[in-house]
Amino acid sequence: MNSIVEKINTLRKNKNAVILAHNYQIGEVQDIADFCGDSLELSRKAADCDADIIVFCGVKFMAETAAILSPRKKVLLPDKMAACPMADMLNAEQLADLKKKHSDAVVVCYVNTTAEVKALSDYCCTSSNAVDVVNSIEPDREIIFVPDRNLGQVVKDRTGRDMILWPGYCPTHIFATDDDVRRTQKEHPDAITLAHPECPKAVRDCADVLLSTGQMLKYAKQSDSKEFIIATEIGIIHTLKKQNPGKFFYTANEKFICPNMKKITLEKILFSLEDEKFVITVPKEIADKARTALDRMLAVIPKG
Ligand code: 13P
Ligand code: SF4
What we know:
The chain is built from 14 helices and 12 strands. The protein is α/β, with parallel strands linked by helices.
């Protein structure tokens, strides 16, 4: 009998499907993917690839983004319950109210948002290009930044712009503490600490660098250092180790897990390809509006 991997390989070839996986996916899902990356890299790949089907191994907002950017491709999310709680911390009605209160403001939304919120936004960004996106906006414009208050604060600090922040957060990153990081730093005094900007301020303050997941992978490859403490979801450690055999990676906390990212398995990828489920669609009217904000995000190449 064919193994799951063989069946997936046959189906992806026969159906001209591509498997995209976020850096937080379980190791075997990252290993089988045609392409792994952070939110920005996966959005670019979804827009540029010439597959008929995209199997998106990530969470719903990522699959929605792929569907908006590639309206002619069928986008499948292998587990329809894989959501991002941060994206659900702001709905379109709440953003519309905020826009009414600040009617001259430009709205920048993090990609971790629903399609409806993107449709009401002027610019979208990810953690790898948020600073550059905000720097591209005329200096005298007021800015609303939603929904992540932690990334928003990093952007505020780095750009010096006075931004209105929404009090959203990532339930996985918010539990990381500076005690976790300092304890791990004491255990590994030569290690460089890489943290995701979604971490709370106390954790960001004891990190050496703040990076998106894709930037962490590049940083670790290029750095002369041999040891790294990773303050983000543990899924990335798999690829960090795989790409850097002579280097050592320590998680800041073993419980640094996004349960939604962990919902996708090889079995679910196989079912997804067999039954072409679960198809993620965005109504045309919303997709057309959201695409403007997303196209602006793709146009900004992160510096550094
Ligand atoms: P990246 O774009 O850095 O991969 O982040 C996505 C995310 O959801 C972080 O929690
Ligand atoms: Fe959302 Fe946080 Fe999971 Fe990223 S890690 S998908 S922000 S819940």
